[in-house]
Sequence to fold (295 residues):
Amino acid sequence: MAILMRTALFVPGNRPDRIEKAFNTEADVIIIDLEDAVPLSEKESSRSNVREKVTQFANRMILVRVNALGSPFIKGDLNEIIIEGVNGIILPKVEKTDDIHDINKLLLEVEKKRSFPEGSIHLFPLIESAAAVQHIYEIVSAKTKPERLYTVAFGAADYTFDMGIEMTMEGNELSYARSRIAIACKAAGIAPPIDTPFMIDLKNTEALLSDARRAKELGFQGKLVIHPNQVEPCNRLFSPTPEEIAKAEKIVQAFEEAEAASIAAIQLEGKFIDYPVAKRSKDILALAAAIRKKE
Fold:
């Protein structure tokens, strides 16, 4: 199943009012957070908020960020929040392939208990440390039965803290990690990754767009966002423009006509078109169709 993920909006699991507001945005995905945004004293009580809002908004694409493997909350999180309407979990602090296999075992137990089809809960590991970046290809290549890893998301706040460096407006410090993550996902044959939230200045839309554009240019399909005002700009940036759609339609039509005549390489308006170019154009049209369907 292809998931539209131009934007994935985080909202604290202990704030029902904010959860309600999040579902009133145009974010493609809503991530209800039980980890960093929830104080220790409210970790367990917040799960009822999650269940209530998932039931209320079960028609939306919903992920839950659970607490990390090894935490005292992970099993309770999974047992209580995996209900009808939850499409997957964001798993923080993933650093090795064993983490993928361990969470798969826990998810299988819950799916069996709920009589859910095996593998129905998608997995989205968070890559947020030097060790995770170093082991990224092994992580995204980990094979579980059933297969459930959809893609990964990058968490630059913890990554830069782990590295002992500062996040900057220019984002040069993230280029290596972003590149490795995007290349690993492509090489492993999974969906393109989701980029880190932009947290330096929540009111600076131009800086947000510059940061998101850098990620898009490296192969990311969308961005984690932490404020409703970040949704529209990022949705727009990660959507094909009318000009891109029109160009893709021309390319696909011309290439299909050439292919029918046993020709596999053509020129269109001075540009060389072959199978990879045609495939990229079809991907653009598929994304545009998914956006129209959502709207």
Q: What stands out?
A: Residues 7-237 form a domain with the TIM Barrel fold (CATH 3.20.20.60).
